[in-house]
Amino acid sequence: MEYMNDGQNYIVRIDKDENLFEKLIEFAKKENLTSGHISGIGALKDVELGFYHLDKLEYHKKKFTDDYELLGLEGNLSHMDGEPFFHIHATLGDSEFKAFGGHVFDATVAVTCEVNFRVFDELVERKLNSCIGLKHLELRRI
Questions:
Q1: How high is the pLDDT of residue 141?
Q2: Which CATH class is domain 2-138?
Q3: Residue 131 gets which letter from DSSP?
Q4: Handedness of CA 110, 115, 121, 125 (dihedral sign)
């Protein structure tokens, strides 16, 4: 992984066979980042995606083991239980040119992953919302 910044924004490159979440968390800790927005492209493998069933308050998870084009990655950085937490969704494309996506639980970089990160100055934390069964963003007015 390598990255550079212009004071408020970063470009991050995560390399082949590196774990997406491990490297993003390493990056956030090294740079003392508390919150922000990420977007990216590249290629992933060994991807675990999820779809949240609100009626059951649980995720249906599925593992995809081939190499996939990362058509789009969107997400955010917040803090949960005192630790950096990346909430990421992705759209993937397969060798048949079919697209699919969902909430990303885990992924390994297949070729490269190029991420843009926009820093937020305020700490954003996640707190449990019992109505939806998930920890959602706890936003404070400035």
A1: 64
A2: alpha beta
A3: T
A4: negative
